Amino acid sequence: MKRFLILPALFASFLAVAQNKPFTMAGKLGALNKPAMVYLDYMDNGEGHADSALLVDGKFKFTGQIKSNAYARMALDHTGEGKNKAVYTGDVIYFYFGPENITVNSRDSLATAVFTGSKIYDEHMAYNKTIGGSIMELTKAVNAKFSSGSPEDQKDPGFMKAVNDWYRAKLDNKNEQQLLFAEKNPNSFFALVALSETQKDKANEGRIAAAFKKLNPQLRSLDMGVELAQRIDASTMTAIGASAPVFSQKDVNGNSISLADLKGKVVLVEFWASWCGPCRAENPNLVKLYNQYKDKGFEILAVSLDSDKTAWEKAIKADGLPWLHVSDLKGWNNAVGRLYGVRAVPASVLVDKDGKVIGNELRGESLKAKLAALYN
């Protein structure tokens, strides 16, 4: 099994370029005033940041320091209804930016905003154009395609299949264009972005790994590069028959729990979070299965991708989850989540008594059937 290790020399080059550098992001969005707010959330080299600003005659300004190019979500709350409303149902855009002096201007909304002063933003837009659009743009397009059908069309399985086939074809083309971009542009930051976004493509695992090896070493040294290397390794380390990666994290009381301590039991390593609706919806099924098989040697080791301990503990209590729980409270940067290549929750790996992987992404009926086969 080939691993992508970060060598000391590579760390040295990374440290030379990963110093904090300042950025400013100022703009004018019409003539909006209080209670209108702009919310900025961004991920910089594995660290999440959040900021907000009141609009005064449409004007706002953010300042900060970043180590690398940052991925951002900006949401405009026109009427003061709060961040959640703005993010999930409001005026939202996603973009990359660097340590630059950026201006954002629009007459009415973020959807029509013009960015100037950011080379990284311009490169991101050019990259999106090359690959056939961002995932947000594709999602918007398929929703529009569905909405264009009549009420009768929208109930027709044939119409639904045609829309889904169109969307899947667009996604396949996008993945191919991203791989081509990465292979042709090994010095581009967006080559790393492309590989990170396509890494789940099982059919192209070898191609993705080969393109990653050819990336500029400084790109591979960024947190996104280190995480991608972990995910490439995880696709092999969590394959059926592999020895599950051993880990240890602390429970809600600060006590360390290790997967190695559970050898001799069948263990479901369950990745979840208090804020994850599908995870919470699955919990009653897990409780039922846990109670059915716990006395036969079945255990659940739940790894939370929470960053708020109070929310984590509250969800455990509210859902009545009697199994083992651990977290380092680093959100998506949870060390075990990265080790296992987790990019979405819920996610799970089923491990047998000898520590071998015997199942991936089992839940609901598939988990029920697997446990029944093991114990009955």
Question: Can you give keywords for this protein?
Answer:
376 residues, 3 domains, Immunoglobulin-like, alpha+beta, 13 helices, four-stranded mixed β-sheet, Glutaredoxin
Structural description of this entry:
The structure is a single chain. This protein is an alpha+beta fold and 376 residues long. The chain has three domains: 99 residues, Immunoglobulin-like (Sandwich); 105 residues, no CATH class; 128 residues, Glutaredoxin, CATH 3.40.30. It is built from 13 helices and 15 strands. The chain has a five-stranded mixed β-sheet, with helices on one face. The protein has a four-stranded mixed β-sheet with strand order 4-1-7-8, with helices on one face. β12, α11 and β13 form a beta-alpha-beta unit. α4 packs antiparallel against α5 and α5 runs antiparallel to α6. The two termini are 35 Å apart. The N terminus is likely disordered.
